[in-house]
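dumping this here before i forget
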Amino acid sequence: MWVEGESGANGFNNINLHWTVHPERNQEWRDGQTRILGVKGASQECDCDFIGSGDTVIDPALLTWYKETYVMEPVEKRGFDGNLWVWEHPNYNRQYMVSADVARGDGADFSTVQVIDIEDSSQVAEYKGKVDTKDFGNFLVSLATEYNNALLVVENSNVGWATIQQIINRGYPNLFYMSNDLKYIDTERQMSNKFYRDEKQMVAGFSTTSKTRPLIISALDTYMKDKDILIRSSRLIDELFTFIWNGGKAEAMKGYNDDLTMALGIGLWVRNTALRLRQEGIDLTKSMLNSTTIQNDTGVYAANWQNQRNPYEMQIGKGEVENLTWLLK
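structure:
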């Protein structure tokens, strides 16, 4: 109710009445409340402090900093239901990732999307709404295509498979695949050849399990602590304020949702692992090519073997060299 009152969504007028405005209260009374209620309880009851009174996964002070520093109104709200918020339109010189969490289908949660600029980890667009699985698949294909055929990462639990199947039926070329044991990740193409053993184990989308969920939360926590991500959405920050530890498990408070949070966490994990591994492979290939090829005076590329200046000369032993240019005649 308080969050909706701040945004003007429910018509409430929020008023803060700190304990210090009471004429009969002093510091001695306040210290007594801490002894009676505990630090967090007294913070909530006396200081009007929702932030300090919960067991949020992300440091509340850090969330407040993000809210005051980066959160802004989107430049455009569009989509069939107006719930697609856009802060940056596609830049065709940059790479993007679209990370999606599909609603369970019982009407209690939302289907959500985070569009992330891979280069600087900035949030450029976000969606939160209720839509059936097939339409959501079509929406994801359209959005990912708009953002330069972005890597499309879809959470595949529950009814997520229906959405993924629609994406496959549409022939989208950059759908994320991974193995259940996390040993093999394909971020470049759909798997069509199931001959090899590793490829047989590949599944479309991202699987949130007891093994991967802590990795998602860890990636989210690390990115935010290091301030390596630019979050612009007030909806996401409000959701993070109610994303708490409950018996050692990170989840939304009762009556709240964590769909935007999970979509972001999945996207950050993929960026931090799969995309990093792919880039390291690309860099390694470039390094290998740069170190093994040269261009000689004739314009011919040849192996850049150590201490071998002329590619047409071959060491034949005992310090003797044979010139092989006669082979070209």
